[in-house]
Amino acid sequence: MKYFAIAFTTxxxxxxxxxxxxxxxxxxxxxxxxxxxxxALSPRDRILRxxxxxxxxDICSTVESILRNPRDALLxxxxxxxxxxxxxxxxxxSIALLGLSVASWxxxxxxxxxLLQRAVLFAQLRETKIVYVRKLSSNPEMRxxxxxMGLNVAWSPNASCTQLELPLGxxxxxxxxxxxxxxxxxxxxxCASINSIALGSARKSADKQLPLN
Length: 213
Ligand SMILES: CC(C)(COP(=O)(O)OP(=O)(O)OC[C@H]1O[C@@H](n2cnc3c(N)ncnc32)[C@H](O)[C@@H]1OP(=O)(O)O)[C@@H](O)C(=O)NCCC(=O)NCCS
What we know:
- By secondary structure, this protein is an alpha/beta fold.
- The chain is built from six helices and ten strands.
- The strands form two sheets. The protein has an eight-stranded mixed sheet, with helices on both faces.
- α4 links the parallel β7 (about 95-100) and β8 (about 130-135).
- The radius of gyration is 19 Å and the shape is globular.
- It binds coenzyme A (COA).
- Coenzyme A binds near residues 99, 100, 113 and 142.
């Protein structure tokens, strides 16, 4: 069932009421609009969104998988226009992967920030501390959005290096005051390194708890 999650703005001017921009979870009726939204992304944007220059067939299968789990996605509709933005979270075991895209004509109006905020809420509901994003290290726009929102951002300064950079976001009471309490947006490329760091510290704390006899 389609439900309206967020209403952006209403304009009542001289007695006229204009339709408002809204965000909904997707339904099967959105299949073509979703495919068109992704096909309209430039080659660079497709790489940033999907991690590689995906084909039209790949886009159709992504849309099918979005529609299989509509509660993990959010679409921003602009009245009388194509889709303005799409956010999709997918989960593999404990790993959460975020895909986010805003149509080029709709950028710079806060839609990306709003969808990222929603993605954070989705992650918090699942008690996920790290959300991965493909190609985050090549995406300064996305890193800026995350940092402005107070998230930790883990990325690698160059592709051949797996060293983490963790510039702390600004204090955001909504996300927790201490850096370690805040959700981290991390480059998918760093998933293995982050997992091994997490495994190492889990082992250390398990060792500490071993009885001494
Ligand atoms: C990254 C991306 C999602 C950002 O979307 P967006 O809707 O333009 O994001 P916002 O509008 O929230 O923020 C963009 C800029 O507009 C500014 N802005 C936000 N609201 C604004 C408003 N109401 N008026 C003017 N500017 C505004 C923000 O401060 C931000 O400024 P900055 O460039 O200095 O950081 C979009 O560029 C995109 O889809 N890129 C391609 C795919 C991609 O990179 N996806 C992310 C990885 S999956």
